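Onboarding guide, step 5: your first structure request.
Type a short instruction followed by the sequence, for example:

Predict the 3D structure of this protein.
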Amino acid sequence: MRLKSLLGLLPMLLIIPATNALAEAYPSTYSPLPSQATLITNATILTGTGERLDDASLLMADGKISFVGEGQVPEGVTTIDASGRWVTPGLIDVHTHLGVYASPGVKAHSDGNEMTNPATPNVWAEHSVWPQDPGFSRALAGGITSMQVLPGSGNLIGGRGVTLKNVYSNSYQGMKFPGAPHGLKMACGENPKRVYGERKQMPSTRMGNMAAYRAQWISAQKYIDDWAAYDKKVADGKENGNNDAKAPKRDLKLETLAGVLNGEILVHMHCYRADEMMTILDMAEEFGYKVTAFHHGVEAYKIADKLAENNVCGALWADWWGFKMEAYDGIQENIAIVDRPEGSCAIVHSDSSEGIQRLNQEAAKAMTRGNLVGMDISPERAIGWITSNAAKSLGINDQTGSLEAGKMADVVIWNGDPFSVYAKAGQVFIDGALVYDRDNPDLQPVSDFELGQLQGVSK
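The system replies with structure tokens like these:
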């Protein structure tokens, strides 16, 4: 997406070095936009850590949060009087397909499912991301500052996801969240068994799903062992002067799975039924890896205690249910119940280019349903479902997801209570830079793709 006023920033942008590049293939080249010290005063602040501060201030400087509540204010800051308004961390959606199922929704933009094999851990969603997707700017207007873009759920193992900052760039590398670990999208249940069953291939049953997963993990374990044996031979050769060790052939599928088994890549598992989630947890124990989050999980409420016990997040919808058999037993109190046990991690996700625009209202639905059954969920708790808990599941909570000194200044100023149906994001800051302003047309991003269409219409 391109800010209409971006041209005025180009002289500054051209001298900003590409920093925070990861020591990996296709590293992040993200660099924050220039920003100025900004003080927000007289606001109701939800910190994302369970606190609510009334008539409070927040200072952003050098792209970071300087203080929340009270603190020393330097001279020359820009001040925003937020009387009557609310401030939250930037919202984070952990399950999106923006860029890989881009708008407009045509076949040419269908790049999210590599359904040529039940297991495709070798594909990376980022290699399909189209940065010009108009959906990014729509999400920004809804307060979304970061997101995870995932492959689809047609395969048992769909490939790596990528965490992005919601900023304009000509490349996905320029959007990649610096330091964010890779995620691996996996799926259980109806989707993969239907896709491959219709082709008369394995898997065509749930037991086929499990057998196929296990075969992949066994191969990954051997891959790790083969490389360990090679490394030992190299080390021994250095000692005795014999360097005839032959390296195993590099395998992109097994490289990703080995990354999971070594704890470097986070598993995000599409799974609906409680019994299947329990089976997946048993499989994770069998092969010694961790499930970071179950996505969708309409029956997660049945095993909320087990999710908390295993420190597994539930990334869930507020009210989607019944659209297929495995989604039939969903309830609207699902998120609230998953959020109850000690050590729990409830998240509201969208899985929708439209729902991501109103993620705060999706959270409001879940909070309302919990309160209607007497669970007494406050705004300061519910905001964590779309900020700090989401950041935790993506492995970026040390950098963003809450308003704490030293973290990225990813901040949203709302016109009122963000859990109101009338809530609108007024200003959105990413790393302290004002990237969206509802009252300023020059700070309402439009993608290059859209600009071309609009110019054609105007002629």
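Each response can be followed by summary notes, for example: Residues 1-23 have pLDDT under 50 and may be disordered.
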